[in-house]
Amino acid sequence: MSAASRHSHGRSALTTSGALRVPEVALAFWIVKGLSTAMGEATSDALVNSSLGATVSVLLGFVVFAAALVLQFRTGRYRAWTYWLTVCMVGVFGTMAADVMHVALHVPYTASTIFYACVLGAVFITWGRTERTLSIHSIDTPRREAFYWAAVVSTFAMGTALGDFTATTLKLGYFPSAALFAGLILIPLLGWRLLHWNPVLCFWSAYVVTRPLGASIADGLGKAKDVSGMGLGDGPVAVALSALIVVLVAYLAVTKRDVQRDPATPPAPAVDGDAALELGSR
Question: pTM of this prediction?
Protein backbone atom coordinates (compact mmCIF):
# COMPACT_ATOMS: atom_id res chain seq x y z
CA MET A 1 0.00 0.00 0.00
CA SER A 2 1.42 3.40 -0.96
CA ALA A 3 1.95 6.19 1.56
CA ALA A 4 -0.84 8.20 -0.06
CA SER A 5 -3.18 5.23 0.17
CA ARG A 6 -2.32 4.65 3.81
CA HIS A 7 -2.92 8.33 4.56
CA SER A 8 -6.29 8.27 2.80
CA HIS A 9 -7.26 5.06 4.58
CA GLY A 10 -6.29 6.54 7.96
CA ARG A 11 -8.49 9.58 7.39
CA SER A 12 -11.52 7.69 6.08
CA ALA A 13 -13.33 7.86 9.44
CA LEU A 14 -13.16 11.65 9.23
CA THR A 15 -13.91 12.25 5.57
CA THR A 16 -16.76 9.93 4.63
CA SER A 17 -20.31 11.22 4.85
CA GLY A 18 -21.28 8.50 7.30
CA ALA A 19 -18.49 9.40 9.74
CA LEU A 20 -19.07 13.09 10.36
CA ARG A 21 -18.77 14.40 13.90
CA VAL A 22 -22.21 15.96 14.31
CA PRO A 23 -25.71 14.46 14.00
CA GLU A 24 -28.23 14.75 11.22
CA VAL A 25 -30.58 17.69 11.74
CA ALA A 26 -34.11 16.41 12.16
CA LEU A 27 -36.88 16.50 14.74
CA ALA A 28 -34.90 14.65 17.42
CA PHE A 29 -32.01 17.10 17.06
CA TRP A 30 -34.20 20.12 17.78
CA ILE A 31 -35.94 18.44 20.72
CA VAL A 32 -32.71 17.46 22.47
CA LYS A 33 -31.12 20.82 21.61
CA GLY A 34 -34.06 22.67 23.15
CA LEU A 35 -33.97 20.53 26.28
CA SER A 36 -30.21 21.02 26.62
CA THR A 37 -30.55 24.81 26.54
CA ALA A 38 -33.21 24.75 29.24
CA MET A 39 -31.23 22.23 31.30
CA GLY A 40 -28.06 24.32 31.02
CA GLU A 41 -29.86 27.41 32.32
CA ALA A 42 -31.45 25.60 35.26
CA THR A 43 -28.29 23.66 36.17
CA SER A 44 -26.10 26.75 36.04
CA ASP A 45 -28.44 28.72 38.28
CA ALA A 46 -28.82 25.81 40.70
CA LEU A 47 -25.05 25.36 41.05
CA VAL A 48 -24.19 29.04 41.34
CA ASN A 49 -26.82 29.55 44.03
CA SER A 50 -25.87 26.37 45.91
CA SER A 51 -23.48 25.97 48.85
CA LEU A 52 -20.63 25.59 46.34
CA GLY A 53 -20.80 29.28 45.55
CA ALA A 54 -20.33 31.06 42.24
CA THR A 55 -16.53 30.75 41.98
CA VAL A 56 -16.34 27.01 42.62
CA SER A 57 -19.37 26.37 40.41
CA VAL A 58 -17.88 28.25 37.46
CA LEU A 59 -14.54 26.45 37.83
CA LEU A 60 -16.32 23.10 38.09
CA GLY A 61 -18.43 23.93 35.05
CA PHE A 62 -15.35 24.82 33.04
CA VAL A 63 -13.48 21.64 34.03
CA VAL A 64 -16.37 19.34 33.09
CA PHE A 65 -16.97 21.31 29.88
CA ALA A 66 -13.29 21.03 28.91
CA ALA A 67 -13.27 17.29 29.69
CA ALA A 68 -16.38 16.73 27.57
CA LEU A 69 -14.85 18.71 24.70
CA VAL A 70 -11.64 16.67 24.84
CA LEU A 71 -13.67 13.47 24.82
CA GLN A 72 -15.64 14.69 21.81
CA PHE A 73 -12.48 15.57 19.87
CA ARG A 74 -10.99 12.17 20.64
CA THR A 75 -14.02 10.53 19.04
CA GLY A 76 -13.39 10.14 15.33
CA ARG A 77 -17.03 10.08 14.33
CA TYR A 78 -20.39 11.13 15.71
CA ARG A 79 -21.41 9.34 18.89
CA ALA A 80 -24.66 10.39 20.52
CA TRP A 81 -23.45 10.24 24.12
CA THR A 82 -20.24 12.22 23.67
CA TYR A 83 -21.78 14.79 21.35
CA TRP A 84 -24.80 15.56 23.52
CA LEU A 85 -22.73 15.51 26.72
CA THR A 86 -20.61 18.25 25.16
CA VAL A 87 -23.68 20.23 24.10
CA CYS A 88 -25.13 19.98 27.60
CA MET A 89 -21.89 21.14 29.18
CA VAL A 90 -21.73 24.01 26.71
CA GLY A 91 -25.22 24.87 27.93
CA VAL A 92 -24.11 24.92 31.56
CA PHE A 93 -20.80 26.72 31.11
CA GLY A 94 -22.12 29.07 28.41
CA THR A 95 -24.82 30.19 30.83
CA MET A 96 -22.23 30.76 33.54
CA ALA A 97 -20.04 32.79 31.17
CA ALA A 98 -22.91 35.11 30.32
CA ASP A 99 -24.09 35.40 33.92
CA VAL A 100 -20.61 36.16 35.24
CA MET A 101 -20.40 39.22 32.98
CA HIS A 102 -23.62 40.55 34.50
CA VAL A 103 -23.37 39.46 38.14
CA ALA A 104 -19.63 39.70 38.81
CA LEU A 105 -18.59 42.38 36.31
CA HIS A 106 -21.91 44.30 36.39
CA VAL A 107 -22.14 44.40 32.61
CA PRO A 108 -25.72 45.21 31.51
CA TYR A 109 -27.55 42.53 29.54
CA THR A 110 -27.76 44.92 26.60
CA ALA A 111 -23.99 45.20 26.43
CA SER A 112 -23.32 41.50 27.01
CA THR A 113 -25.83 40.54 24.31
CA ILE A 114 -24.11 42.85 21.83
CA PHE A 115 -20.66 41.62 22.90
CA TYR A 116 -21.48 37.94 22.42
CA ALA A 117 -23.27 38.71 19.14
CA CYS A 118 -20.04 40.29 17.91
CA VAL A 119 -18.06 37.25 19.09
CA LEU A 120 -20.45 34.94 17.24
CA GLY A 121 -20.21 37.08 14.12
CA ALA A 122 -16.42 36.96 14.28
CA VAL A 123 -16.50 33.16 14.59
CA PHE A 124 -18.80 32.82 11.58
CA ILE A 125 -16.73 35.21 9.45
CA THR A 126 -13.46 33.46 10.30
CA TRP A 127 -14.99 30.02 9.83
CA GLY A 128 -16.52 30.95 6.48
CA ARG A 129 -13.34 32.51 5.13
CA THR A 130 -11.21 29.60 6.30
CA GLU A 131 -13.40 26.64 5.32
CA ARG A 132 -15.64 28.23 2.64
CA THR A 133 -18.73 26.69 4.26
CA LEU A 134 -20.69 26.86 7.51
CA SER A 135 -22.66 23.70 6.83
CA ILE A 136 -22.76 21.19 9.66
CA HIS A 137 -22.62 18.48 7.00
CA SER A 138 -18.98 19.47 6.45
CA ILE A 139 -17.72 18.90 10.01
CA ASP A 140 -15.21 16.20 9.12
CA THR A 141 -11.87 17.58 10.32
CA PRO A 142 -10.61 18.74 13.75
CA ARG A 143 -10.28 22.33 12.54
CA ARG A 144 -13.85 22.46 11.25
CA GLU A 145 -15.06 20.92 14.48
CA ALA A 146 -13.16 23.57 16.45
CA PHE A 147 -14.98 26.29 14.50
CA TYR A 148 -18.26 24.45 15.07
CA TRP A 149 -17.87 24.30 18.86
CA ALA A 150 -16.67 27.90 19.00
CA ALA A 151 -19.90 28.87 17.26
CA VAL A 152 -21.98 26.69 19.58
CA VAL A 153 -20.40 28.19 22.71
CA SER A 154 -20.96 31.70 21.34
CA THR A 155 -24.63 31.00 20.55
CA PHE A 156 -25.22 29.71 24.06
CA ALA A 157 -23.57 32.71 25.73
CA MET A 158 -25.33 35.21 23.48
CA GLY A 159 -28.67 33.45 23.82
CA THR A 160 -28.42 33.47 27.59
CA ALA A 161 -27.76 37.20 27.66
CA LEU A 162 -30.52 37.82 25.12
CA GLY A 163 -33.08 35.83 27.10
CA ASP A 164 -32.23 37.75 30.29
CA PHE A 165 -32.36 41.00 28.32
CA THR A 166 -35.94 40.43 27.18
CA ALA A 167 -37.14 38.99 30.48
CA THR A 168 -35.55 41.52 32.86
CA THR A 169 -34.26 44.57 30.99
CA LEU A 170 -37.36 44.81 28.79
CA LYS A 171 -39.47 43.47 31.68
CA LEU A 172 -41.39 41.02 29.50
CA GLY A 173 -41.13 38.18 32.02
CA TYR A 174 -40.03 34.63 31.32
CA PHE A 175 -43.01 33.05 29.59
CA PRO A 176 -43.78 36.09 27.39
CA SER A 177 -40.10 36.02 26.39
CA ALA A 178 -40.43 32.32 25.57
CA ALA A 179 -43.49 33.08 23.42
CA LEU A 180 -41.53 35.81 21.62
CA PHE A 181 -38.65 33.46 20.79
CA ALA A 182 -41.02 30.66 19.83
CA GLY A 183 -42.47 33.02 17.24
CA LEU A 184 -39.03 34.10 16.06
CA ILE A 185 -37.84 30.53 15.55
CA LEU A 186 -40.68 29.97 13.08
CA ILE A 187 -39.22 32.61 10.73
CA PRO A 188 -36.18 30.60 9.52
CA LEU A 189 -38.25 27.40 9.48
CA LEU A 190 -40.95 28.88 7.27
CA GLY A 191 -38.40 30.80 5.22
CA TRP A 192 -36.51 27.61 4.45
CA ARG A 193 -39.59 25.51 3.91
CA LEU A 194 -41.78 27.91 1.91
CA LEU A 195 -39.49 30.58 0.49
CA HIS A 196 -36.39 28.44 -0.20
CA TRP A 197 -34.08 30.59 1.88
CA ASN A 198 -30.47 29.49 2.31
CA PRO A 199 -30.62 26.33 4.48
CA VAL A 200 -27.34 27.01 6.28
CA LEU A 201 -28.43 30.54 7.21
CA CYS A 202 -31.81 29.21 8.36
CA PHE A 203 -30.20 26.48 10.45
CA TRP A 204 -27.90 28.82 12.37
CA SER A 205 -30.65 31.42 12.81
CA ALA A 206 -32.90 28.79 14.38
CA TYR A 207 -30.00 27.40 16.41
CA VAL A 208 -29.29 30.80 17.95
CA VAL A 209 -32.93 31.32 18.94
CA THR A 210 -33.25 27.93 20.65
CA ARG A 211 -30.97 29.18 23.42
CA PRO A 212 -33.06 32.13 24.70
CA LEU A 213 -36.21 30.08 24.07
CA GLY A 214 -35.02 27.19 26.26
CA ALA A 215 -33.52 29.48 28.88
CA SER A 216 -36.73 31.50 29.18
CA ILE A 217 -38.79 28.34 29.65
CA ALA A 218 -36.39 26.98 32.28
CA ASP A 219 -36.40 30.27 34.19
CA GLY A 220 -40.18 30.44 33.94
CA LEU A 221 -40.48 27.00 35.50
CA GLY A 222 -37.79 27.38 38.15
CA LYS A 223 -37.80 30.99 39.30
CA ALA A 224 -39.99 32.35 42.08
CA LYS A 225 -43.50 33.57 41.41
CA ASP A 226 -42.66 37.13 42.41
CA VAL A 227 -40.33 37.36 39.38
CA SER A 228 -42.86 35.87 36.94
CA GLY A 229 -41.81 32.23 37.44
CA MET A 230 -43.72 29.17 38.63
CA GLY A 231 -41.47 28.59 41.64
CA LEU A 232 -40.60 24.93 40.98
CA GLY A 233 -36.94 25.54 41.78
CA ASP A 234 -33.87 25.45 39.54
CA GLY A 235 -32.63 22.13 40.96
CA PRO A 236 -35.80 20.09 40.34
CA VAL A 237 -36.16 21.59 36.86
CA ALA A 238 -32.54 20.72 36.04
CA VAL A 239 -33.00 17.13 37.24
CA ALA A 240 -36.23 16.63 35.29
CA LEU A 241 -34.75 18.05 32.08
CA SER A 242 -31.58 15.99 32.48
CA ALA A 243 -33.67 12.82 32.83
CA LEU A 244 -35.53 13.62 29.61
CA ILE A 245 -32.25 14.23 27.78
CA VAL A 246 -30.80 10.92 28.99
CA VAL A 247 -33.86 9.02 27.75
CA LEU A 248 -33.80 10.68 24.33
CA VAL A 249 -30.04 10.35 23.85
CA ALA A 250 -30.23 6.68 24.87
CA TYR A 251 -32.87 6.23 22.17
CA LEU A 252 -30.65 7.92 19.59
CA ALA A 253 -27.59 5.94 20.66
CA VAL A 254 -29.44 2.65 20.24
CA THR A 255 -31.36 3.40 17.05
CA LYS A 256 -28.67 5.62 15.44
CA ARG A 257 -31.46 7.50 13.69
CA ASP A 258 -29.51 10.75 13.79
CA VAL A 259 -26.25 9.44 12.30
CA GLN A 260 -25.48 11.22 9.03
CA ARG A 261 -25.37 8.57 6.36
CA ASP A 262 -23.50 8.07 3.13
CA PRO A 263 -25.66 9.27 0.22
CA ALA A 264 -25.62 5.73 -1.16
CA THR A 265 -27.02 4.34 2.08
CA PRO A 266 -30.83 4.46 2.36
CA PRO A 267 -31.82 6.55 5.39
CA ALA A 268 -33.92 5.17 8.22
CA PRO A 269 -37.66 5.77 7.85
CA ALA A 270 -38.45 9.33 8.91
CA VAL A 271 -40.82 10.05 11.74
CA ASP A 272 -43.53 12.63 11.21
CA GLY A 273 -42.05 16.10 11.14
CA ASP A 274 -38.45 15.06 10.45
CA ALA A 275 -38.44 16.23 6.86
CA ALA A 276 -39.78 19.63 7.81
CA LEU A 277 -36.93 20.21 10.25
CA GLU A 278 -33.92 19.00 8.28
CA LEU A 279 -32.21 22.39 8.20
CA GLY A 280 -28.53 23.02 7.74
CA SER A 281 -27.98 20.96 4.61
CA ARG A 282 -25.33 21.79 2.08
Answer: 0.83
